[in-house]
Amino acid sequence: MALVKVIEVIASSEKGIESAIENAVAEVSKTVRNIDSVWLKDTKVHVKDGKVISYGVICKVSFRVD
Questions:
Q1: At a CB cut-off of 8 Å and minimum separation 6, what does 1 contact?
Q2: Which end of the chain has fewer CB atoms surrounding its CB within 10 Å, N or C?
Q3: How far apart are alpha carbons 49 and 4 in whole angstroms?
Q4: CA neighbours closer than 13 Å in the CB half-sphere of residue 46
Q5: Which residue segment(s) compose the domain that 13 sits in?
Q6: Among candidate residues 13, 10, 9, the one with its CA nearest the CA of residue 54
Q7: How is 3-65 classified by DSSP, letter by letter?
Q8: The domain that contains 32 carries what CATH number?
Q9: How far apart are CA 7 and CA 28, in angstroms?
Q10: What is the tally of structural domains in the chain?
């Protein structure tokens, strides 16, 4: 039986939501192996002077435990 663990992470990007998700996966991958999936829990944008300056995501990352 496989055991799966889920962690929650926050990431951001100036490029867009997809880039923020990719940043989250890239950072988690530095210390976590066997990532199976990422569930996008929430999104937000940061605004300054009436313009979007960055995108933020809260992700739940699931991975198999050895």
A1: none
A2: N
A3: 43
A4: 11
A5: 3-65
A6: 13
A7: EEEEEEEEEEESS-HHHHHHHHHHHHHTT---EEEEEEEEEEEEEETTEEEEEEEEEEEEEEE
A8: 3.30.1660.10
A9: 10
A10: 1
| pTM, entire model | 0.89
Instruction: Look at the chain and count its residues.
Output: 66
pLDDT tens by residue, 12-35: 999 999 999 999 999 999 999 999
Q: Integer distance in angstroms from the first to the last C-alpha of the chain? A: 11
Coil, helix or strand at residue 66: coil
What pLDDT score was predicted for residue 25?
A: 98
